[in-house]
Amino acid sequence: MIHLSTLTKRLTQFLTLALFFGFAAVAQAQWDIMQFGGRDYVSLDSIKKFYNFQTYKRSGNQIVLEGGNLIFKLRIGDQESTLNGIKFVLTYPVIESGAKTAISRIDLTKLIHPVLRPNYILNAGNFRTVIIDAGHGGKDAGAVNAYNTEKAYNLRVAQEVQKLLTAKGYRVILTRSSDVYLTLQQRVDIANSLKEAAIFISIHFNSGGRSARGIETFTLSPQGVAHYGSGLKPSDLNARNGNINDSANVALATAVHSQVLKNIGRNNTFDRGIKRARFSVLTGVRHPAILLEGGFMSHPYEAQLMENPKYMSAVARGVANAVILYKSAVSYRKPAARAQ
Ligand SMILES: [Zn+2]
Hints:
This protein is of the alpha/beta class. Helix 4 packs across helix 7. The protein folds into 2 domains: 23-116, Copper Amine Oxidase, Chain A, domain 1, CATH 3.30.457.10; 129-331, Zn-dependent exopeptidases (Aminopeptidase).
């Protein structure tokens, strides 16, 4: 059971703002599509009209669209944008052409639209099963620091998410519930062998140089979009299993990313954004799927934080809350007119 006031509080979170925003009177607007560098772009002016943003402010290269409870910030020439303070890495930089500013059509259809209109994603809410994939295990420790191994952290978070979501009536399946080795394909097979609707969340912790820090959430690159930080390869043009869930993937990533950030607390982490990737579990799994990197084991401050059970609990609570929030956002239907 969720107490109504708790639910109401949760509903004030990011996704649901977008959700209710979707039912405001929508101005009739046509997409203003232009070509730039051989690619389709959509003007920010038509995006403003379609989603009922009230204001468009520009200062230098910074653009802010604001309306209702939404604040969308973009920068000309930049791929980083924020929606209500959550960082989204666009596939292509924002452009300026003549008097118009625009974002790529693929960023509009595969990112902005599903996030602002999650309830339009068909059948996405019809699940009670959540697959939690603790990354690595057994002979594969994942990242390692002076305190611990990534495989142990991943499992700790997975088991706590299982407890939290089971208590809310979800069926939770762990790809591993002990320190055993699984190949990436085995994880995909476990998920795809399920006959019922489900979502898939892979839990990892990061490692990099001593200065790299923060959390990032990966969703499958849409067809024709490269893995983050890599150039486009010919194989990126093929659709993969996970591409059937492009819209649900990014909506789920938004919920998980924003809730984990919120639960860890902005002061204790850094928002690296929601990014596109072609990790095996994302390309192979047929359910909506995301991969969370819950902090850097190689960062001195974050490494210490992770040894505090409160940090792991915050990550787990973030994931569990996100599942509940995501389900309500994608399930929401405009209430029918009251019967006479
Ligand atoms: Zn990992």
